[in-house]
Each structure stands twice: as C-alpha cells, then as structure tokens.
C-alpha cells in the first residue's frame, strides 16, 4: 500500500474507533515510515493529510498529537486531499480556454512521421530547436537581448521532467551525501524532501526585507562549508519577497568570494514584469537556473529547464606578486574550464547531464516537442500574459477580504503569506480551515531546521475558481477573527 491517503484512512479509523485517543502522540515520522515500510516523504504526506482532515495537530519540536476536539464528520475523514472543496494548497493556474489553445498547437505533432520523432528518447540537452526556443523565451521574459539583462546561451540549457527534477539534479550534482546547502529559512517544501532523499542538510539563512543576508551566508559557510546555495530571489514561495537588485549584487559578491555555486529557482518569476535581473546575471559563472513550464502552462505535460552557469575563460597567468609585509587575501573567482564538446557538456555540464540521466530526471521527448510548439506558436506567451492578469485579480480579492490582517503579498504573486493573529497557531488554523472545507499550508511546511515554525499559513491563490476563492477568503477571515 503506497497511497498516503489510504494510510491516512487507517490512522483515521484508529482515531474513530478510539484505538488512538485525543492527546495521544503519533510516532515520529521516521519511525512511522519504518513501521509501515513506506518512504519518510510518504509518512510526511500522511501526517500532512491527517492535519488537513483536522484529526491531528503538529507541534514543532514536540510531535504530532491526536486532536482533543471531537473528530470532524465521516465525510471529512474519508475525503482525499484532491477532493477538498477549495484547495489553497495546490497551486497550478489554469486559464479558461487553455486546453483548446494547447490542443491546437499539438495537432501537427500527431502526424505519424512527426510523432515517430517525438516519441524517441531525448538527451538531457534536448534538441537544438528546444534549446533555441527556451533560450528565446527566457530572454524575452528577462529583458534579454543584445544589451539586455539576461539572455541564456542555448548551449547551456538542459531539460528535465519538471522543475523539481531540475532542483534534484542540480543539488545532486553540486552536493554529496552529508553536504550542506544554504537556503532561505522558509523555503519551498519539496526542497526539504529532495534534500532529505539526497542526505543533504539544509542550512537556514536569515533574511531581511531585501533578501538573504550575505553575512548569514558567510557565517554559515565558516561554521562548516556549504556546497551550494538554493534561493528564490523573485517572488519567493511562500513569502512573495523579491530580493532587491542591491542585495542580488551583494549575494553575488558573497558567493564569488566563498566559491559557492547557486541554484536559482525561477519557477514563479515569469509573473513579475519589473523584478531586477536574475541572480544569474550578477553571478553568471556560478548560477544554475531552475525554471519550467508547469506554472506557465500545466503540470501534467511540462518540462523543467536547468540553465548551466556560463563558462569562464581561464584566467591569464598573473605576474608574481611582489611580497609585502602584510598580504591581504584577495578573493579569487573559482575558474570553470571553457565549454567543449556537445551542448550542455562543458563547464561541469557533462557531470550535470550525467546526473540527470542517472537520476531518471530527463524530459520526455514528447513533452519537449509539445513545449517547443507551445513556445514557438506564442501559446506560452499568451498564457503568461493571461496568468499575470489573473494573479493580479486574485491578489485584489485577498486585499479586499483579508484587509486588516498581517498578509505578506506581492501584486504579481499567486500566493500570500498570512501571519495569523494571536492566539491562532498555524497547525490549529490549518485544522480549522480543513473543517470548513479549505486546504491551506501551515508555516511548518516551509520552515527549515529546528526552532519554532512561524504561526503563518500560505494561501495558494492559483487553483480555485475566483468565486470559490473569494468565499474561502471570507470564511478564513471570519475564522481568524472569531475562532
Ligand atoms: C518554488 C517552487 N519551485 C518548484 C516548484 C515545482 O515546479 P514543478 O511542478 O515544475 O516541479 C514549485 C511548485 O509549486 C515551486 O513553488
């Protein structure tokens, strides 16, 4: 049995029958996973599902407990997560008429001779046409061009099944088991699971309102060397923070000084039309950009992109320095050998491509061919424009219904971070929302490392139809005010 919802049903039965009583503590997730012979990540999903159903509450540092309140109705007990009436947890936007647009662009792919090609395998570097199409898309969105902000070279692009696989591939090739990767102290939850699977420790780094503090990065690296930094500088999920241009420059200086590679996750960045250039523009020789089509288009037929750092020319031999009494150490950028061979194979690209291959993380050729058609036919640009407008509309609903609460949001973003009014705690509020048929994500899902998780929830605005979203926001505001 590997469906986490069925396992959650079994625990729910134990609670309903009294075998597990209010206040009982569930075993730690790892012990639960061992006992049920499931992966720790599946155990995590079982526990999240039980929180969602309002049956248990998780207390950071203490464990997970059966709720003292009477369990909710039988319907809630049996309901799978995907059938939650209003899902503010899953966050994939879909536009009206999207399927027609996508389908029309796919028609030429279905010709037998074209399909024969589209169903072959594809290497991690995809096809020349796919690399050109994606390079042009990213350059358009990042103000790229001859004198533009960022314009990736087509031969630096690799393809994965989705952005999560690009993150996994990048981290697997940059860090060994036992390694340490710096991240924002609140981060995309799946990065936590990916790191656990790779036996990599995530090191939370403090931020201020401009982004990660370079001093926090330097201190963490000095304590024990980091192997990489994973960041979301634009529309950070969950807080919506966009790192300022000044801080991007400071971070670029810091990673260069420390010799660290950076994984820049830009899956949500397409929404922002006036963010500073990607971190990759500030530290091109060490930044791996993660992006993909799952948010721009759809998660069920998507590809992820992993843009490799630009090769740095080998430094010219330096004249011998004249010895002086006191030598100040000068930070030296770590040189990367110039690109050679097939696309995506130079500058460490061969290693990354091999990691993607051996991890089973390369894109399917059909998805790649579909992506090429959608990009070349302008379908992606149209969906991007529609989704930007849609996100702005949904943010206006939040501004209207959650007025007066401490909500961190960006008018370009598809989520908001709601710091709950006391005495609410994130897990009990999540349970209260679930009782009202609304799935939200508690702050603990995003928190890295020990320490109290914030009493905040993330509301994903993308998936629910706007009238349902508005009703859910009204219900949640009411619950937050009156308990
Ligand atoms: C920050 C971030 N990165 C990556 C992903 C995953 O993208 P994909 O579905 O392409 O794997 C998400 C999905 O929500 C995300 O929020």
From TrEMBL:
Record keywords, A-Z: Aminotransferase, DNA-binding, Pyridoxal phosphate, Transcription, Transcription regulation, Transferase
Database matches in Gene3D superfamilies: Aspartate Aminotransferase, domain 1, Type I PLP-dependent aspartate aminotransferase-like (Major domain), Winged helix-like DNA-binding domain superfamily/Winged helix DNA-binding domain
GO molecular-function terms, A-Z: DNA binding; DNA-binding transcription factor activity; pyridoxal phosphate binding; transaminase activity
Any matching Pfam family: Aminotran_1_2
Organism superkingdom: Bacteria
SUPFAM superfamilies: PLP-dependent transferases (SSF53383), Winged helix' DNA-binding domain (SSF46785)
Keyword Transcription regulation: yes
PANTHER family per the UniProt record, alphabetical: HTH-TYPE TRANSCRIPTIONAL REGULATORY PROTEIN GABR
Family: In the C-terminal section; belongs to the class-I pyridoxal-phosphate-dependent aminotransferase family.
Protein name: PLP-dependent aminotransferase family protein
Organism: Streptomyces himalayensis subsp. himalayensis
